[in-house]
């Protein structure tokens, strides 16, 4: 977690943040394509929807739903994968899922739903830690029901907050991205960092030691390489191409798209760098 030479990157996916009494505006997020190579508009739209966006409850409720394209938009930016920090106000358990109401003091409560993973032995412990009045960070996909009349976040990560600096980090992230979009939309902030990360890979990704989420084939190979990367900005497509020469670029990009849509990975500093949601 750091501000590095004009860009903000996440320290890890399992954020350890907290909620505070923030009364700021609704914020925004990074301009699509910032620091990315030139691609056509249809590819931009696809990649943009796979980018993890820091939002507030105000953005969650103010985003407009386009029923034709089945997408939410705020400030002309598509919203798909999001992260939000807040305190749990309500918990309702069902047989297959748990519904939460999250409060970040910027708007109405945010509806969050997370499926129960009966095959994960640690899932009971994780659920027991996320009760009323617990501060959490939620990461998931923003979904619409009843043609946009109802909305919620389908969470694939919901973790308790332990670091009381995380609230500042989260809202700075929202504000920073909003300012980048409004004041410097053409600034390539993603390429301003020259710090070379050390010890990028902690293990041999093909030798086990990672939770491959039951994946198979190319998806498993690509996911394991991404999970093995410990760099804050994640692993780039260029690096993945070098490590997966037997897969081919088309199959590689198909795997990246599938893994992103399924919530296994997310893009970081631009649309060509990825991290695992399990890291």
UniProtKB/TrEMBL annotation:
Gene Ontology terms: cellular component: chromosome, telomeric region; DNA replication factor A complex; site of double-strand break
Keywords, in A-Z order: DNA replication, DNA-binding, Nucleus
GO biological process terms on file: DNA replication; double-strand break repair via homologous recombination; nucleotide-excision repair
Localization in the cell: Nucleus
Domain Replication protein A C-terminal: 207-272
UniProt-listed PANTHER family: REPLICATION PROTEIN A-RELATED (PTHR13989), REPLICATION PROTEIN A2 (PTHR13989:SF16)
Protein name in UniProt: Replication protein A 32 kDa subunit
Source species of the chain: Hydra vulgaris
């Amino acid at each position: 977690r750091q501000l590095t030479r004009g860009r903000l990157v996440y320290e890890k996916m399992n954020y350890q943040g907290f909620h505070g009494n923030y009364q700021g505006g609704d914020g925004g997020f990074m301009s699509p394509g910032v620091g990315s190579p030139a691609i056509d508009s249809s590819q931009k739209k696809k990649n943009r929807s796979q980018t993890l966006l820091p939002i507030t409850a105000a953005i969650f409720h103010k985003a407009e739903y386009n029923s034709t394209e089945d997408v939410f938009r705020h400030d002309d930016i598509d919203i798909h994968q999001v992260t939000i920090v807040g305190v749990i106000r309500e918990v309702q358990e069902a047989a297959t899922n748990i519904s939460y109401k999250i409060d970040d003091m910027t708007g109405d409560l945010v509806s969050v739903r997370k499926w129960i993973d009966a095959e994960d032995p640690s899932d009971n412990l994780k659920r027991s830690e996320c009760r009323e009045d617990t501060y959490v960070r939620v990461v998931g996909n923003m979904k619409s029901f009843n043609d946009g009349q109802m909305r919620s976040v389908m969470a694939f990560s919901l973790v308790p907050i332990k670091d009381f600096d995380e609230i500042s980090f989260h809202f700075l992230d929202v504000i920073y991205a909003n300012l980048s979009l409004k004041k410097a939309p053409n600034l390539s902030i993603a390429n301003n960092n020259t710090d070379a990360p050390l010890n990028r890979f902690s293990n041999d990704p093909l030798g086990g030691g990672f939770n491959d989420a039951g994946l198979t084939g190319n998806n498993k190979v690509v996911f394991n390489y991404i999970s093995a990367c410990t760099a804050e900005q994640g692993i780039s497509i260029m690096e993945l191409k070098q490590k997966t020469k037997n897969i081919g670029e088309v199959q590689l990009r198909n795997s990246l798209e599938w893994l992103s849509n399924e919530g296994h990975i997310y893009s970081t500093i631009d649309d060509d760098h990825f991290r695992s949601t399990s890291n």
